[in-house]
Amino acid sequence: MLPDFLLNYTDYFQPLNLFKYITFRSIGALLTALIISFVFGSKIINFLKAMQKHGQPIRDDGPKNHIIFKAGTPTMGGLLILLAFTTSTILWAKLNNLYIWIVLSVAITYGFIGLLDDWLKVSKMSSNGLKSYQKLIPQIIIAFFAALILKENTPVGLQNYLSIPFLKESVFFLGIFYIPFVIIVIVGSSNAVNLTDGLDGLAIVPVMIAAASFGIIVYLTGHINFSTYLQISYIPGIGEIAVLLGAIIGAGLGFLWFNAPPAMVFMGDTGSLSLGGVIGVTAAAARHELVLIIIGGLFVLEAVSVIIQVLSFKLTGKRIFRMAPLHHHFEQKGWAESTIVVRFWIIAVILALIGLSTLKLR
Known about the structure:
single chain, mainly alpha, globular
């Protein structure tokens, strides 16, 4: 909105030319989202507390100390994140950019699915909200349309192709399997972040790390000089997503202020499904889906731990982990919550650096 309006007056006030630059607007979006979070954070939390008399229901089969220390904490804190980063994005991004609207649409619709799930949990005072298929089917439908629009608006030479990291301009033709693949990426990313959101501050920092990493990737991918130098696929207009990702980092920092241990509010499915969807659709738009497996490796580990646990129990009657997802396994081993969270943050940073190294190691 701001660049669309202010760039018309650069002849009268030359400093307005700053709004041409994605880097400047990404920083502006970050700071704006952070300010919005600080201004509205306490108000939203007080509203959620008033609406949720007993806070988020705690799983009976989860760690026992959660029942003691986390009972009464409100959920749906993702509303604060959504408010901050969507408002900031609309202010700082160029609204004639299709990629912005694709990512925002996934964020808002996935956030609505998560909101409905959270609301059912608190209204019924049960840790069971929507059934799995009730969440997955709309997620798949939304991801299908996002994948279809991305395919139709990608340069012809890249349509239905998968980029291979570490190899120079190497792509693999997926053909009719491209759209199902992108659906898996978006839905899988969304639910992997959702599974990671189990301890105070655990999910939001890796999300910000992934957002920063993909902010760099989309900026370079959308810049013809940098993409040519790095020998990665050039996608016109994709760099604008960096503004939205900057807004997510700012919203994440603001949310962490209230979510730091002991948390005043939980993100809930409202935030985790939305943020995971954003990371997934961004990776697909930038044709760096495989790099997402590296950068989002922490989320992958959490999701895989659940899959392994379920399969092992069904096939052998035995559990591989003391409890799944993985962070609960370490809780059961006696690790302090803060220890788990900080160590997982460190892992997320290491994986992000490895993922970013794929840009040069070609």
